[in-house]
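Quick one, tokens below. Sequence please?
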């Protein structure tokens, strides 16, 4: 079966003759009335293999379980997928198993189905060399995480070139703005882009950053939460000289609600942008490609990319948040947060700060897998279920 994930609507697909040859198309008509992933993991612990949100994207795991070839056609969004396509991809996690396997020395998810899908990715619209490099890395990571084989990546100038499978010449790279050209405003806004909002690891990390900033004599002038697409960017963001964007890694990239927020946020040129991201896997470096998307975003908008903090083993953050800061599970956080706070206060480049736990990887894996199994047992669900749509 051939499946298409796209942000082009059916009329546009028909006009371009792209609709022919696909058995299943998932596009704006399915995404607009549906919700974006809320990060509840019900698709792993309550109804394994099927999302718990009852809408047009509920059965994407089963769609992939029947797919031989997946083509992703998306507008280029700073070297990542557009909000519509990312919303589809985020809702695909029922396809994988919550437990882990090791690939190339890194943690990845076990596969729920015995299947290798051929993956072809087309990012249309103007794209710079840096954006193409970013997308190629993200598509490779997606293929690895979802057990797919990446066969093709191409970058046509517009939707008309989708069928030709040829890349247009690169758009010229926007010059990187240096911290010395940063906006003069003293404002400092923290953005919580976790779909879990107040109950997220991101929220905890941002409040620890806020405390560290206060200790260094700086104050946060505003906080913004954008757990759902379409939420206002916040006026204080437009006026802030510095913004720290907190988010969880979703399918190797930014969550769709953050892609949406970036599209709509009106940041003043020269604003310094930092990131504070966490992920479920142990290795914080898996966050790096999503930092490249933010760096490309800054270049395109005349903002200053200030780097950020990448936190591994994010699954431990909420369950251990009541333990003392010096405990085994939490003592790796303060030094990383301290380094990010120092960069933010002094308006310097933080680089990519990697923050990995003190406990070894095998212990984290054991704890996480035990937790997934006990959550499944509690809801009477079969963790290994392989639903297939008729
Ligand atoms: C849709 C979805 C996709 C995810 N993709 C990844 C991923 O690619 N790599 C990873 O390590 N963790 C992934 N995770 C796990 C989250 O990054 C992890 O649970 C994180 O701690 C959530 O942070 P938060 O509480 O701030 O939202 C994903 C989670 C969800 C819900």
């Amino acid at each position: 079966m051939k499946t298409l994930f796209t942000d082009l609507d059916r009329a546009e697909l028909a006009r371009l003759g792209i609709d022919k040859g696909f058995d299943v198309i998932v596009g704006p008509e399915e995404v607009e009335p549906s919700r974006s992933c809320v990060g509840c993991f019900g698709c792993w612990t309550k109804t394994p293999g099927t999302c718990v949100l009852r809408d047009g994207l509920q059965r994407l795991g089963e769609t992939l379980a029947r797919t031989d070839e997946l083509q992703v056609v998306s507008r280029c969004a700073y070297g990542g997928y557009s909000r519509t396509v990312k919303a589809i991809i985020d809702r695909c996690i029922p396809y994988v198993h919550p437990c882990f396997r090791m690939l190339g020395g890194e943690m990845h998810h076990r596969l729920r189905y015995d299947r290798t899908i051929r993956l072809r990715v087309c990012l249309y619209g103007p794209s710079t060399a840096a954006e193409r490099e970013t997308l190629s890395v993200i598509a490779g990571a997606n293929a690895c995480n979802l057990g797919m084989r990446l066969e093709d990546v191409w970058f046509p100038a517009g939707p008309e070139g989708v069928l030709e499978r040829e890349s247009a010449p690169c758009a010229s790279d926007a010059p990187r703005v240096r911290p010395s050209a940063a906006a003069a405003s003293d404002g400092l806004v923290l953005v919580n882009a976790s779909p879990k909002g107040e109950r997220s690891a991101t929220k905890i990390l941002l409040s620890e950053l806020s405390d560290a900033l206060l200790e260094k004599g700086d104050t946060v002038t505003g906080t913004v939460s954008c757990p759902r697409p379409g939420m206002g960017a916040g006026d204080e963001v437009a006026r802030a000289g510095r913004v720290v964007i907190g988010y969880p890694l979703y399918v190797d990239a930014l969550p769709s609600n953050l892609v949406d927020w970036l599209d709509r946020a009106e940041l003043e040129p020269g604003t310094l942008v930092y990131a504070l991201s966490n992920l479920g896997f142990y290795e914080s470096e898996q966050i790096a490609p999503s930092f490249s998307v933010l760096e490309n975003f800054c270049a395109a908008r005349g903002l200053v990319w200030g780097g950020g903090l990448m936190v591994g083993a994010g699954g431990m953050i909420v369950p251990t948040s009541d333990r003392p800061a010096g405990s085994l599970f939490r003592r790796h956080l303060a030094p990383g947060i301290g380094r990010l706070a120092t960069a933010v206060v002094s308006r310097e480049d933080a680089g990519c700060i990697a923050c990995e736990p003190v406990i070894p990887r095998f212990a984290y894996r054991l704890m996480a897998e035990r937790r997934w199994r006990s959550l499944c047992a509690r809801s009477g669900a079969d963790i290994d279920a392989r639903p297939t749509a008729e």
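The mean pLDDT is 95. The chain is about 30% helix and 20% strand.
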